[in-house]
Amino acid sequence: MMRREKLAIANIYVPVKRRATLKPDTVREIAQSMLEVGQTTPILVRRDGERFVLVQGLHRLEACKALGEESIFAYLEESIFAYLVQAQRH
C-alpha cells in the first residue's frame, strides 16, 4: 500500500541513470500544466534512510524545481518487510 505525502524536494535523491532520461521540453510542458491546474499526479519514491529515492516522476519533480517549489506530493512506496512486521503483530 502506498501513502500520499508532501515531501521536501531537497530530501529526494534522483539516481544517475534516471537523470540521464530527462527531457527539458517535457519539463517545460509539465511546469506549464502545473501553473494552470497544479500537480495532478504524485511522484513515486521509496525511503532510503533519511532521504527518499525517486522511483517515478522525474519530469514532475524537475518541473516543481523549475517553478521554485520546495515540496512535492509523492506516494511513498512501502517495502514488503513493513507489511510482514505488521502482519506478525496481529
Write out key terms for the chains shown.
90 residues; alpha/beta; five-stranded mixed beta sheet; 41% helix; globular
What does this structure look like?
By secondary structure, the protein is an alpha/beta fold. It contains four helices and five strands. It has helices at about 15-20, 25-35, 60-65, 80-90; strands at about 1-10, 10-15, 45-50, 50-55, 70-75. A five-stranded mixed sheet has the order 1-5-3-4-2, covered by helices on one side. A hairpin with a 2-residue loop joins strand 3 and strand 4. Helix 2 (about 25-35) crosses helix 3.
- What oligomeric assembly is this protein in? single chain
Q: Quick one: biggest sheet? A: 5 strands, mixed
Average pLDDT reading: 88
Poorly predicted segments: 83-87
**SSE ordering:** EEHHEEHEH
**In percent terms, what proportion of residues is strand?**
25-35%
Helix content: 40-55%
